[in-house]
């Protein structure tokens, strides 16, 4: 094949490729490769591919930082539904968090990372409606657990615990329908019990005990005085 013919074919290929960007199908739905810039600029805002109006494959989203497109998120869309595997990035390219989304709702398991390392900071679970549901954990940057709790349909439910860097429990609460409800205990960094009592629908109730230097002080929250 002559060089001129090769050049002509390359030009034709480039022309066809350019024509496939930002196109609509016969029904007016986005189809093929799409790219959009931030308004009034040449800075890329997003790029991806549609199949008759539905996102497919990988989409990339950018921030405009000083006139430069900086990757902020990527979404890998499922061809059979509206879910996507999503990854969020810092301006330096480090992964901030990752999980699944259905539209704008977080679903399933999500993982978040510490700013200065690739170690896990938080693990959460979401239901199909985007509500926190199931176990939630927070970790120190050395991997030691800092908090553990449980959610049901977006509200705290059951035990919640807080820990020191030395794995000493600091607080132990019980939640019901998003409110403190049940026995609660507070500990010193050495693991010594310093206060305990019950909450009833988010308020202290009954006898609370406070411990300090071998002395126990009791306070009764059963009958609060009413304002005159």
UniProtKB/TrEMBL annotation:
<dbReference type="InterPro" id="IPR011652">
    <property type="entry name" value="MORN_2"/>
</dbReference>
<feature type="signal peptide">
    <location>
        <begin position="1"/>
        <end position="18"/>
    </location>
</feature>
<keyword id="KW-0732">Signal</keyword>
<protein>
    <submittedName>
        <fullName>Toxin-antitoxin system YwqK family antitoxin</fullName>
    </submittedName>
</protein>
<dbReference type="Pfam" id="PF07661">
    <property type="entry name" value="MORN_2"/>
</dbReference>
